[in-house]
Write a structure and sequence with these properties.
The chain has 131 residues and is mostly beta strands. 0% of the residues lie in helices and 44% in strands. Strands 2, 4, 5, 6, 9, 10 and 11 form a seven-stranded mixed β-sheet that branches.
């Protein structure tokens, strides 16, 4: 059984940082493209969504949404089967539920990462940023 469990969310003030983790079990993360997505309050999960940050199986191709470039960093530790998202200079508009996702055939490039490419999903961790 594949499980993705996010952690690290919380309530912070604007300008502060958080590091999200996604612990994966039931598959070898080494063979999977992974990514982070988010849903702001009122958004529906069923709608196709652009990624926050994604990284290819081989770690060479990374994608960041424009508003996250320079602030967020995605990384993976295949030995620990864990995915990370370092979020710096957080803004109130970053408030959302953050989800990690994995797929063994998902396509990711420096300008493309979308939710429909991913099969396995976590339950999410809430990030709230106050002004």
């Amino acid at each position: 059984q594949v499980q993705l469990v996010e952690s690290g969310g919380g309530l912070v003030q604007a300008g502060e940082s958080l590091r999200l983790s996604c612990k994966v079990s039931g598959l070898n993360l080494d063979g999977y493209t992974v990514g982070w997505f988010r849903l702001a309050p009122g958004q529906e999960r069923a709608v196709e969504r652009e990624g926050v940050a994604c990284i290819s199986r081989n770690g060479i191709d990374t994608y960041y949404a424009d508003s996250m470039k320079g602030r967020f960093t995605i990384s993976r530790d295949n030995a620990k089967n864990t995915l990370y998202l370092q979020m710096n200079s957080l803004k109130p508009e970053d408030t959302a539920m953050y989800y990690c996702a994995a797929d063994d055939v998902a396509y990711v490039s420096d300008n493309y990462c979308t939710s429909v490419e991913f099969t396995y999903w976590g339950q999410g961790t809430q990030v709230s940023v106050s002004s």
